[in-house]
Design goal:
Blueprint (H helix, E strand, L loop, with lengths): L7 E4 L15 H11 L4 E4 L11 H14 L3 E5 L5 H14 L3 E5 L9 H12 L7 E5 L1 H4 L5 H8 L6 E6 L4 H9 L6 E4 L5 H6 L4 E4 L2 H16 L3 H21 L2 H11 L16 H14 L15
Helix pairs in contact: 1-2, 2-3, 3-4, 4-6, 6-7, 9-10, 10-12
Keywords: Carbohydrate metabolism, Cytoplasm, Lyase, Schiff base
Subcellular location: Cytoplasm
Pfam family, one: DHDPS
Length: 310
């Protein structure tokens, strides 16, 4: 098994689409170059941000192949699915194409409230990619999973040999800390709540996965640099600016479709998002851009790219 462990900023990459909502596979090369230019060394694909649950299994495989081919860094492939057989198939495919790691949410149609059932489910997926590090993706706001994650980690130490850790997207810092300490502290617990990065840092996180890294990774890197230097006043200022930017996006319209318009303005034809996410108008996109500039986010935006350079 490879030794990859998530660290630093890991954007949850978007999946570019055409206006007819088919996947724009050709634009993935531009998206990969754009994200690399922002200074990151790893990306997380086909998760919530990447609309993995809105893609067919075949589409997910083709998206993963394109990102692994074009991103100059490590690609973590999310393979979670309500059908565990399909999730395992996606995990095996990720290993076959050379992904750095695999991650999976819990099946979500039937609530995952049993730690033992969560263990069995993740074991089935992880067994399909034994050579890759595996991360359980804990996002109870979307999956309604109520299983005890620290207990899951304790049990998994003896039954899922390639479990590397958890992508933790939840505001319960006390649970995050318990996960960090589980099984003697052997697991990597990556923090996935953009608005609370400073809390994740203070709790000992070394890796952060986020949607808004897609357009303002420099802000979050500056936040981490300030915190590491002991300048907590500056770190708090930047965290507040991040939270304000996210509040503004949510006030204008549908979050992910609007962020895709920001990426398009910065040089990548990211396109719309599929239902059940709502569509956005050009007026909303313009309003958001102007509001973010007024807020002071401009200096912290990812560098723009020209498609002629891709």
């Amino acid at each position: 098994m490879n030794n990859y462990t998530m660290k630093g900023l890991v954007p949850a990459a978007y999946t570019p689409m055409f206006e007819d909502l088919s996947v724009n596979y050709d634009a993935i090369e531009a998206m990969a170059s754009y994200l690399k230019a922002s200074g990151v060394n790893a990306i997380f694909i086909c998760g919530s941000t990447g609309e993995g649950c809105n893609l067919t299994t075949e589409e997910r495989k083709k998206v993963a192949e394109a990102y692994v081919k074009h991103f100059d860094g490590e690609v973590i492939v999310h393979v979670g699915h309500n059908c565990l057989k399909d999730a395992a198939d996606l995990a095996a495919h990720a290993q076959e194409i050379g992904a750095a790691a695999v991650s999976a949410i819990a099946p979500s149609y039937f609530p995952m409230n049993s730690t033992q059932v969560l263990l069995k489910s993740m074991k089935q997926i992880a067994a399909a990619c034994p050579e890759l590090p595996f991360y359980y993706y804990h996002i109870p706001a979307l999956t309604n999973a109520g299983a005890n994650v620290p207990e899951f980690l304790e049990l998994a130490a003896d039954s899922i040999p390639n479990l590397r850790g958890v992508k933790f997207t939840n505001e319960q810092i006390h649970v995050f800390l318990a996960c960090k300490q589980a099984a003697g502290g052997i697991y990597d617990i990556a923090f996935g709540y953009d608005e609370m990065m400073i809390a994740g840092w203070s709790a000992g996180s070394k890796a952060y996965v986020g949607s808004t890294f897609n357009f303002m990774a420099p802000l979050y890197q500056a936040l981490l640099d300030a915190a590491e230097a002991g300048n907590m006043e500056e770190a708090r200022r930047l965290q507040h600016l991040s939270e304000e930017a996210i509040r503004v996006i949510n006030s204008v319209g549908a979050f992910h479709p609007l962020v895709k318009t920001l990426i398009s303005r910065l040089g990548v034809p990211c396109g719309p998002a599929r239902l059940p996410m709502d569509s956005v108008t050009q007026e909303q996109a313009d309003t958001l851009w102007n509001k973010l500039q007024d807020l002071g986010v401009g200096p912290y935006l990812n560098p723009s790219i020209s498609l002629s350079r891709v």
